[in-house]
């Protein structure tokens, strides 16, 4: 798979490092796919970091025309991107490539018109400006990333890791995404959204510690009917207080957090074993195969059995996976 990052003449070192870490390393020794990866400039001239270092890039801008995945790096100013760059992104999308915007890279994608009528995210401090500039785009500043099929957007620079891991999980399955996360030494999935990083009143320390214990207990007991009332009692709180502190700590609701955990665990069981779908559904708390199938189709786009066939093959055929 050909992956190309496109950067303006000024770039933050963190984003540069994130995409290189995820796509630029050969990890075939641990069974992970490799990518034909390069970063190219959106405009002629040297690439500089904010701290004075200059980076020499060997890639050519025309590489976008052959790329399967194009990474739109953060745009350091909100000046209009070069017309040639926007045209290249449109051409890439029209021929079937996937576009992924990081942080203020959402501004670039919005400038192409490809986000019209779609949801997107960006760093929370840029969200109002981009929403006002492109009213046809629905900006959600509370999440770490938004997946709209072949156009994906991420929040702040560090959320680029969350976005990349999500894409890897979507394309290669939970086993590969989890192995990549272990290699980079980060969690395979970060709970909540960027709303939890915006300045707001913090929960009491004691409440946070109790919630951490409850989160661990929830992960270990996904098969149980975990109601807010049950969880609140476990945390020694009222249901209303529990729901409020849960959102303050994780950035999401108990129901949404629990659904995500159940789906992630179901992915692992489908990829890593031969349990019947009915048993997978029971172990992760969906109860029936029909309920699991409904959530899988809605959230992952495929039924559980099709997911298992696709990613079991990917796990057992590394030579095909690496050449994808």
Automatic annotation (TrEMBL):
Which PANTHER family does UniProt cross-reference here? ARAC-FAMILY TRANSCRIPTIONAL REGULATOR (PTHR43130), HTH-TYPE TRANSCRIPTIONAL REGULATOR RV1931C (PTHR43130:SF3)
CDD domains, per database record: GATase1_AraC_1
Q: Which Pfam families match?
A: DJ-1_PfpI, HTH_18
Q: What is this protein called?
A: Transcriptional regulator, AraC family with amidase-like domain
**Gene3D superfamilies, sorted:** 3.40.50.880, Homeodomain-like
User: What lineage, starting at the top, does this entry show?
Assistant: Bacteria, Bacillati, Actinomycetota, Actinomycetes, Cryptosporangiales
Q: Which InterPro entries match?
A: Class_I_gatase-like, DJ-1/PfpI, Homeodomain-like_sf, HTH_AraC, HTH_AraC-typ_CS, INH-QAR
Molecular function (Gene Ontology), one example: DNA-binding transcription factor activity
Report the residue ranges that make up the HTH araC/xylS-type domain in this protein: 212-310
Alphabetically ordered keywords of this record: DNA-binding, Transcription, Transcription regulation
Q: Which domain of life is it from?
A: Bacteria
